[in-house]
Amino acid sequence: MRVIRTLHILFFGACCGTGMAVGQTPGSKDPIDQAVALVERTLDHLRQSSFLYHFTDQFERATAKHPCDVCPEVSLIGVEEYAFKVRMQYPDTFIFRHRIDRGHIKVELGADGRPVRVRVPFTKWLSGPSSAEGVGHLSVRRLFLIANVLVESTGDLVMETVLEEKPPGRAMTMATGSWGMELGAPTFGDGSVLAPDYTARCYSLGVEHYFHPFGTPNRRNIWLKAGLRLQWSHTRIVQDEALFSLRDQALSPATTPSSTMPQLIDLVWRVGDIEEQVRTIGLVLPMGLSKRWALGDLSVLALDLEVAVGRELNNAVIGRYRMDQHGEEHRIGGMLMRQSNGEALVYTHAPASVLLESGERIDFFSDRQDVLDGLEIRQRSTLSFGLSPSVFISNRKEVVYRVGLNLSFARPRSDTGTILDQTYFLASEDNNRPLLSAFAKNGYRPWAGLFFAIKL
After folding, report:
1. Domain 172-246+276-321+375-455, what fold?
2. Are the beta carbons of 408 and 446 closer than 8 angstroms?
3. Is domain 2-164 classified as CATH 1.20.120.1810?
4. What pLDDT, in 10s, does the model give residues 357-381?
5. What is the pLDDT of residues 417-452, one digit of tens each?
6. Contacts of 48 (CB under 8 A, 6+ apart)
7. Element containing residue 428 per DSSP (H, E)
8. Under 8 Å CB-to-CB from 127, ≥6 apart: which residues?
9. What is the C-alpha separation between 209 and 451, in angstroms, rounded?
């Protein structure tokens, strides 16, 4: 077969004055430039069906292989067979375009430091409708190929083989589910009476799409990702008691008209059984990068960097507390008022009351029950930053599952314009009060959780 092809070329060259023998690479002596020129010339011969014998003769052996991009399924076949299929399907011109990726050309050196092989990656697009039956879909096919060019001892270059460069992955969409919890507890500032037990949980369901938008085989295995999640969260704070007090409050003389001596009293508020639960549902748009490393045939290690923006759709508050408003340490002219048994007098229930010098009337009570259920919370936007190490698990053909760990920082709801004191709990009818949890110090808080995904 090799002899027949060589005689065919010699005959055509003698008749038409065209053609170039194997190994002839005029121009630059740089092996990369020579290899690129050889690949370009080989592809030019491939385009013209009448020059297919020139195409096959660029290869070192007739047993050389080439991906069959004109077949319904791309497979590696012999160069002679490939040229025959091209000629049958494209009698005149094989319509395609290509681009050589010079930035990733590699030169292999022999033991003596001399170049022995040049790997030339290139991308090939089959454009234009095919006249062959059943292969019309080839008009949009794209392949990443590598031409292996041999450098002979004489310095001449010949095509060794052409292989398909398989990308390290493919675009895919995955359904995801996750669970997470906030690490640690928020701080409410120095001197704050709030130091509650705090828990926060978050759950989500959604889809994520991984893709590579550039016309390269993604050799670095870095993917972009975008998605949509439905997320719901639940936060809960619980505290047994919070104590507020105002010491040495002056009373109006009208309290005891018969006495003109100054009167002072300590006002004490005890708030107990404090509980607040907030449930929120929202939409989240995650965006980011995913870097992957192959661990073997069936698993891939991935590290995702993510920014997620979201918007709350619905929220609800459930809360309660119990409150006492007492008067203690009542002193008239510096003398402490006492009960008949000698103990200090404490005002705990109506009708006991006092009138402050400011004119405010204080009615005393004990164990008053109030709720936080009616608080009106505005729906807000959210922002978080995350890091997700995970493992993609495959069967023999494709990725099937993904499991991993979510580590993120999210900014909670906060309110810096309100002071938390006894007036917050006394204003039980004010539904515009902020959440108790919103009095925590501002800033991003850490979250950790697990997630699971399945390929759609």
Report:
1. Porin (2.40.160)
2. yes
3. no
4. 888 899 999 999 999 988 888 888 9
5. 677 889 999 988 888 888 888 888 778 899 999 999
6. 93, 94
7. none
8. 95, 96, 97, 139, 140
9. 15
